[in-house]
Amino acid sequence: MTFTFRPLDPLKDAELLHAWVTHPKAAFWMMQDAELQDVEREYMRIAAHEHHHAYLGLHDGEPAFLMEKYDPRYVELVGLYDPEPGDVGMHFLVAPTDRPIHGFTKAVITAVMKELFADPSTRRVVVEPDVSNKAVHALNEAVGFVPVREIDKPEKRALLSFCTRDRFFNRHSLAARGVAV
Known about the structure:
By secondary structure, the protein is of the alpha+beta class. The protein is 31% helix and 27% strand. The protein is built from five helices and seven strands; from the N terminus they run βααβββαβαββα. The protein has a seven-stranded mixed beta sheet, with helices on both faces. The longest helix is centred in the middle third of the chain and has 14 residues, at 104-117. The chain is globular and about 35 Å long.
């Protein structure tokens, strides 16, 4: 599978994103009742933020997922843990589809992690999914995340988890060779 990334255009991509974030499968994105203008406003806010960035992920050139990266010293996790140099926060959302591809979501999170670690200053990726989102916990574990503890965010109870560069690439290397991880 071929994945590429491009910066999200909050106005041009808002309609597409609106369909994704309001879909029942995106319940953990917490935008189920969002209007198109709400989505535009949220992604305009992200686009204007110095420490938060959104990207559209393309599969064979077609929009297929959303990736957000952020600096947890300034966004999402301020005061909830002690950030280390090289920490990068991440969110991802796979577009809903009527024709699911087996292994697609794992391939997406693997591509997202490779993209984040392509920056040599990234030492570990930080995530904070809802504690009840068991599907994403399994995906996170599959690519090397280690849960640390539950934290209380304003909008949810979250599972703070980390994945170091070494852990991801060791896990990815073993999986590529067919070794169960």
